[in-house]
Sequence to fold (126 residues):
Amino acid sequence: MPPPPAEAPLATKEIVAKDIPHKLDHEPRVETGTAFDVTLLYGVFRDQAGRLSVSGGSVRFQETGGSRSFDLPCGAIRRMSTATMIADRDQRLLELAADGQAYRVRAADTAARDSIRATIGRTCGH
Fold:
């Protein structure tokens, strides 16, 4: 029987730090905190002005000068949709549906609504 073949020596390669791509350069950049002036719509002819903040994996509404608020972790948001209303020519409404609850907010205009939607999409992956 012939002798078994000799194992080839292991090749070594020096890795230079500049050859390693930076992980953060390939991940989406999430804004650390963005707030929008919106109106929370609740009930018939009831609405309340406030700030919608999107940061750190959650969406939070705080009423201006009041106590009405909600705080939704990204994981609690089941659906995000634009609500169409005939009376709202600019189509400024955005609906966030969570477990057993839906929140409708009205932005200043369509562009602001789209910006809110995009920010939530980047932060929460919706």
Q: What stands out?
A: The domain at 31-124 is CATH 2.30.29.30 (PH-domain like). The chain has one helix and seven strands. Strands lie at 34-41, 47-55, 58-63, 69-73, 77-83, 93-98, 101-106.
